[in-house]
Design a protein that fits this description.
6-stranded mixed beta sheet; 7 helices; 28% strand; Deoxyribonuclease I, Chain A; 14 strands; alpha+beta; globular; DNA-binding; 25% helix
DNA sequence: ATGGCTGAGCTACTCAGA
């Protein structure tokens, strides 16, 4: 089974790129973040024509997450946490891998910049609530997949110049500790689990030639609960979509499990 | 290297992203 996570930075502006990518990568499930559109304007038909059903939790202009699936996804839930600002940042559902019932959690964690503002507090509060809910869910189901745009640089190796981000909402120790706290509930960061010292990124800014200079950061992640480690086949950051015309600033991360 | 580039909503310009 192939599950892919991708912050597309507008599903409507990106629909051609997304469609081309699906045809090539053929995921069973595609988890989208930053769809940036209300549910009534979601391009359902484009995904249906490719054989996918869309489970969406949209919002006008900002945020928005979706589970695009070729296989059955049950018990879709948009209230995994209570979001203080009612932003559309999390959608969950259940899938089956052989006999295992897996809770799939698609997230778009707040950016949190600038620090020392209400935006940063919102990110900290969001993470606090999320960790509590994950802990509770883990006590009910030991098969969890958390994927999405975390807006967290886990370690120094995960950004082109750590000095620039050590006091930023993405790289600050206080935030990285939250990521570690999540991992310590019983998860592995699949990319880092497979590649101990590899330096690859999932995001590059649009400006200042960041892509060309490879000034990027690894902020999109797959976390698998320890019970699912034996099911991991491959994890891959696919840089091709970032090199296309009219790209998202993020590129997909692809997981294969069996 | 805390500014530049992109998208949404709207149709000039602000807000947000990371």
């Amino acid at each position: 089974m192939k599950i892919i996570s991708w912050n597309v930075n507008s599903v409507r502006a990106r629909i051609k790129n997304i469609s081309d990518y699906i045809k090539q990568s053929k995921p069973d499930i595609l988890l989208l973040q930053e769809t940036k559109t209300q549910d009534i304007n979601f391009p359902y038909e484009e995904f249906i024509s490719l054989g996918y059903k869309s489970h969406v939790y949209g919002q006008k202009s900002y945020n928005g997450v979706a589970i695009i699936a070729k296989i059955k996804v049950e018990n879709i839930n948009k209230n995994f946490i209570k979001d203080n600002l009612n932003q559309s940042r999390i959608i969950t559902g259940e899938i089956y891998l052989k006999k295992k019932k897996i809770e799939l959690i698609n997230i778009y964690i707040p950016n949190g910049n600038p620090i020392e503002t209400e935006k940063y507090d919102y990110k900290k509060d969001w993470l606090k609530k999320f960790i509590i809910s994950v802990k509770k869910k883990l006590s009910e189901n030991s098969n969890l997949i958390i994927a999405g745009d975390f807006n967290i640089i886990p370690e120094e190796i995960d950004v082109y110049d750590f000095k620039r981000y050590e006091n930023d909402a993405l790289g600050r120790l206080e935030i990285r500790k939250k990521f570690r706290e999540l991992i310590n509930l019983g998860f592995h960061d699949v990319y880092r689990f497979k590649y101990k010292h590899k330096q690859e990124y999932t995001f590059w800014d649009y400006f200042a030639g960041s892509w060309q200079k490879n000034y990027g950061m690894r902020i999109d992640h797959f976390l698998l609960s320890n019970n699912l480690l034996e099911n991991i086949l491959t994890i891959n950051i696919n840089k091709k979509p970032r090199s296309k015309t009219k790209p998202s600033d993020h590129t997909p991360i692809e997981l294969e499990i069996n």
